[in-house]
Every structure is written in structure tokens, then in C-alpha cells.
Design a protein that fits this description.
Rossmann fold, 49% helix, seven-stranded parallel sheet, alpha/beta, 590 residues
């Protein structure tokens, strides 16, 4: 046999990458790149290996070197953009990708990475514009359409997002991403009934089971119902985040009574994590850890009860819960419906969010933590209260600080009816996604399409400084809840600043949280059963300055001293519920 030609370093490295041996591939390609910095294919493969190793800054270093050596290589711009974005330099990534688009206007990979980076930055309208151009040119791929659908969902354009999800599921029924998008979008869509939304979640769970399996672990057949318990908390939001305001009382309730192990999957190095870490017996950062490794870690830690706090929203928790690393599993706080997973045993709710009969819309057993399933802890000292702005002869100002995903067409139409019924009134809107001119203009055009002219809208960009954000409620008389997905943190923040909120009660948990929160501060009459009553109650409140003033001065105290703020009573309820869940598990296995 004649001697075979030696395998090239790139070919050997690609074999290693195919076998997920990224460190070995990176070592080989580094040596090659030092000798051949202009070898675009090899440097691109090196960057790919480094990104899989979590070494984004190193990947950006080599991608920049390649751009200098070979600035007309199309692939370098997508690689550089991805590496810069993962290094926390999104603005620099966007600039590099825009340069790439100028040079290679029909490169779908550059367009995808740019649109995805813009989407991740909250610049959804800009991301949509890039994909729309690609669609018009006829070279958009499924990845680009997926970015467009996700951005449409983020901007409350639910029909478009759901259309993509359904089309994708029809073409490729076993794909996880469109099934997840369809299930999540259903929570926000008023045209999808609660049973239909539940069916979409069960479909997602079935596909998840096909992908990752179930029941990877075994547990003792018998156990002691009264022994000390190890509770695991799996969440990306154990920091200053809307979920964090409710997670703090939860952790305080467990501290000293159960052994708490936190598995934090959020941004590493956040200084705001310290407050949560101090309430846990152990704290493990699991960001980027693959599902199987994380599940094994939880199982090896011998967690008795695993509580996840994000549902389907971020994608990491559900695969872990599906393979059941703990004998008792619970979903809580961060997701507004059943997950559809039979491997999750319980979901914590209350009798107003999930009244009798709601069991038919859940794969989990419902723990009703009455009188309210939540307890809220303010992050810092609250700003002083001020009189309603209308008390100084200003026009009535309605407001909403909910994220734009909740502001669908039905919500905009309802808000338009309220403004029409109160002459001279205006809408004050502030949304997390409203930090960019393109997104702001997009939302304002949607408001105009529903009869709310720009002249009656005050639009404010999001404020990262919490005290300043809360002080903005000084400019609002009455909050308007979206439908069918009510506000939660936003509603409580409004009430802490003395602002009453009008809410529409619907047929599912997401549409009934407003009822629960308002009931627990003595304002259940502001939870309207129909759209007509929603408008009528908003108008009646706007016409009653004495009641507005009374609510303004008393509502904060009602929140802090009632069920929403009574941490001691909440702690007793929560610990009893977890102990009962564990005892029930022991009765089943004994």
C-alpha cells in the first residue's frame, strides 16, 4: 500500500470537534494559527472550539486577528460578532456585524448573528427589519425566521409568532424550539383558550421527553417523613430580577429550617447575588453546564425537594426537571401556567389564581398557598409617596410598565377604549424593551393603529436604577393591567407607590394573578370580570379624586402589612406545604 498523505491539522481538529473534544482541537489549532494566521477555515474552527469551551474573549482575539489578516473573508464577521457578544461586548459585536453586512449584504449567517444579537439586546424592531429584508430578497433561512418570530413575540405580535411556530411544527414535528415557542406564546395570546394552551404545553413536554428521556435516577423506596430536608433551588434569577423579589422571602422562609442548596444559572459574577447567597447553605453557579451534568450534580447532592423558578422561559430548567434528579419536584414563581411535565409533582398557586377545577389545566398537583401564593420583599428603601398627579389639575394619567410581550392587540384595544372614555386622559408607558428608537417607534405605531395617538402617549425608556424607576409612578394616577397575562411585579410596585391597578380576570392563572394581588390589598372591585367592566371601573376610578387620594395614601401599608408582605405568616405556610409534599411522597413509597 502506498504511503497515505498526512491528515491536515484542520481535518484532525474537525474530527476532534465532532467528538466534542474542544480543548484538544483548540490546542492543535492554536499552534496552526500562529504559523498561518490567514487560514480562515482553521481560525474559524479555533474560534468555534473556544466558544464551546466558554472562552469567548480568546475567540474574539483570534477572530480580530483573522479580520486584520483577511478582511474579505465572509465567515470572520459572523464569528467575530458571536465571540464579542458572548464576551459581553454586544455594541462592539453589532458594529462588526454591520461592517460585515456592508461587505457581504446577502450572507445569511452574518444576518442571523446580527439579528440575534440585536434581539438579545432588546432591539427587536431592528432585528425584525433585518429578517424582513432577507425575506424580501429570498435568502432567509429557518434560523432567521426563528429570530423574527421570537422578536415578534417580545413585541406582543403574537399572531405572527404563533404562525411561525405552527408552520415549523408542521414541517418538523419533533423540533423542540418551535414547540417551546408555541407553548410560551400561548400564555400571552387572548385568542388561545386555556385548554388549548395546556395542550401546547403537554405537546412540548412530549417532545422534550423524546429528546432527553425521563427517570434517569433512582431513590430509596422508603424514607423518614420527619427528617431534616434538603431543598434545591434551580433558577437564573436569584439576583435583582422580578422573580428575585419573591425568591428572597422564599429563601428567608427556609433558612434555618431546611438545608437549602442553590443552583444559580444566571449571569455569573452579579454582585446582587450576594443577598441570595447569604440565605443558602450552599451556592453553585451552574451557568452553561449541560443538562446531564447538572442533573447528576443535583442527584449527587441528595436533594429531597427541587424547586425551579423559571418554567419554560429560559430553557435550562425543564430538561433537568424532566429527568427527575430529585424525588419531589416543584415549579414556582417564574412561570404562569402548568409546564406540561409529568415529572414535576407540584405547582404552587392560590385559590384565586387557580380556583377549584383548575386541576384540569395542570399536569402538576396544585399546592394552594392561600391567601396568596406570593410574598414580596422590596429591594431597597422605597421612595416617598406623592399625591396623584391629577390632584394638581393635571389630566388623568393611566400607565403600564409591563414588558411589551404582554401588550398584545387585545390589550391595546382595551386601553384605547379606556382613553376614549376619559376625555383628555393620557397613557404613560414604559417597557423593558423600549430602550431603542426603532422599538419605541414600532410600539407607538401599534398604539396609533388602535386609536391612541402619539399626542396622548408619554413614552419613557426603561430605567435600570430601581429608585428612579419606582419614582416614575409619581406621574401615574391609575395602572392598567394587560390581558390575558397580568402584571405581577409591576402591579405590586405600582401599589407600593400608591397606584391602584385595574385588571381583567380571565380563564387561567396568568389572567387571574391581578385578582389575587388586588384581593389581598382590599381592592378586589378593580378586578373586572369583562372588558366592559374593565373600562367602566377604570372610568369610575378616574372620576373619583377622593378615592384616588385615599388609595394613594394607604395602599403601600396595605401591601406591606397584608398577605403580600407578611413574611412570617408566609414562611409558616410555605414550610408546611413543603413538609406535607415530602410526607405525601413518603406515604406513597412506604
Amino acid at each position: 500500500m502506498p504511503p497515505q498523505p498526512p491528515t491536515s491539522p484542520l481535518a484532525r481538529a474537525c474530527e476532534l470537534i465532532d467528538r466534542a473534544r474542544y480543548a484538544d482541537a483548540a490546542d492543535l489549532l492554536r499552534r496552526h494559527a500562529q504559523r498561518h494566521p490567514g487560514d480562515a477555515a482553521a481560525v474559524g474552527a479555533l474560534c468555534h472550539a473556544l466558544l464551546n469551551l466558554g472562552q469567548a474573549e480568546q475567540a474574539a482575539f483570534y477572530a480580530k486577528a483573522l479580520r486584520r489578516a483577511s478582511p474579505t473573508t465572509p465567515g470572520v464577521y459572523a464569528t467575530l460578532g458571536e465571540a464579542l457578544d458572548k464576551s459581553g461586548k454586544a455594541d462592539e459585536a453589532i458594529a462588526a456585524l454591520q461592517d460585515g453586512q456592508t461587505l457581504f449584504p446577502q450572507d445569511p449567517q452574518i444576518a442571523f448573528v446580527l439579528s440575534e444579537t440585536l434581539r438579545a439586546k432588546g432591539r427587536h424592531a431592528d432585528a425584525i427589519a433585518i429578517v424582513d429584508r432577507a425575506l424580501a430578497e429570498g435568502w432567509a433561512n429557518d434560523a432567521l425566521r426563528s429570530v423574527r418570530a421570537t422578536s415578534m413575540h417580545k413585541l406582543g405580535m403574537l399572531k405572527e409568532a404563533m404562525a411561525f411556530a405552527r408552520e415549523s411544527q408542521w414541517i418538523a414535528p419533533g423540533r423542540m424550539a418551535p414547540a417551546e415557542l408555541a407553548a410560551v406564546t400561548a400564555n400571552y395570546d387572548p385568542e388561545i383558550t386555556a385548554p388549548q394552551a395546556f395542550a401546547l404545553h403537554k405537546r412540548y413536554a412530549n417532545i422534550l421527553n423524546d429528546h432527553v428521556g425521563s427517570g434517569m435516577f433512582t431513590f430509596p423506596a422508603t424514607d423518614d417523613p420527619d427528617r431534616p430536608l434538603r431543598v434545591g433551588i434551580l433558577s437564573p434569577d436569584l439576583r435583582r430580577h422580578s422573580v428575585g423579589f419573591f425568591a428572597l422571602p422564599m429563601l428567608r422562609a427556609l433558612k434555618g429550617h431546611m438545608h437549602v442548596r442553590a443552583y444559580y444559572s444566571g449571569p455569573p459574577g452579579s454582585p446582587t447575588c450576594d443577598r441570595f447567597r447569604a440565605l443558602c447553605d450552599s451556592w453553585t453557579v451552574v451557568t452553561g453546564m449541560n443538562m446531564a451534568a447538572l442533573a447528576r450534580l443535583i442527584h449527587e447532592d441528595r436533594v429531597d425537594i427541587l424547586i425551579e423558578l423559571s418554567g419554560l422561559t429560559l430553557g435550562q430548567a425543564m430538561p433537568v426537571m424532566q429527568v427527575r434528579p430529585a424525588p419531589v419536584q416543584i415549579t414556582y414563581i417564574g412561570y404562569p401556567s402548568s409546564t406540561g411535565l409529568s415529572s414535576i409533582d407540584y405547582r404552587i398557586v392560590d385559590s384565586l389564581t387557580d380556583p377549584a377545577g383548575a386541576e384540569s389545566l395542570a399536569t402538576e398537583r396544585l399546592i394552594r398557598l392561600d391567601p396568596c401564593f406570593l410574598c414580596f420583599e422590596p429591594w431597597e428603601d422605597l421612595p416617598p409617596l406623592s399625591p396623584p398627579p391629577s390632584a394638581a389639575a393635571a389630566p388623568i394619567t393611566f400607565g403600564s410598565f409591563n414588558n411589551s410581550m404582554k401588550v398584545n392587540d387585545a390589550t391595546l384595544e382595551l386601553w384605547g377604549r379606556v382613553l376614549d372614555a376619559v376625555p383628555g386622559s393620557r397613557l404613560f408607558a414604559k417597557m423593558l424593551e423600549g430602550d431603542h428608537a426603532g422599538t419605541n417607534d414600532f410600539m407607538l405605531r401599534r398604539l396609533e393603529a388602535h386609536g391612541v395617538p402619539r399626542s396622548r402617549v408619554v413614552w419613557k425608556t426603561w430605567e435600570k436604577e430601581l429608585r428612579s424607576h419606582l419614582s416614575t409612578y409619581d406621574q401615574i394616577d391609575i395602572g392598567l393591567d394587560p390581558t390575558p397575562y397580568c402584571g405581577t411585579t409591576t402591579t405590586i410596585e405600582a401599589m407600593l407607590m400608591g397606584v391602584p391597578v385595574v385588571s381583567l380576570v380571565g380563564d387561567r392563572h396568568a389572567a387571574r394573578v391581578g385578582l389575587s394581588l388586588l384581593h389581598n390589598v382590599g381592592l378586589a372591585d378593580l378586578a373586572a370580570p369583562t372588558q366592559d367592566e374593565y373600562v367602566a371601573r377604570a372610568v369610575a376610578l378616574a372620576s373619583d379624586p377622593a378615592r384616588l387620594a385615599s388609595i394613594r395614601s394607604s395602599l403601600r401599608e396595605r401591601v406591606l402589612s397584608g398577605a403580600l408582605g407578611d413574611q412570617a405568616a408566609y414562611a409558616t405556610r410555605l414550610r408546611a406545604a413543603l413538609r406535607a409534599a415530602w410526607a405525601d411522597r413518603c406515604r406513597v413509597t412506604l
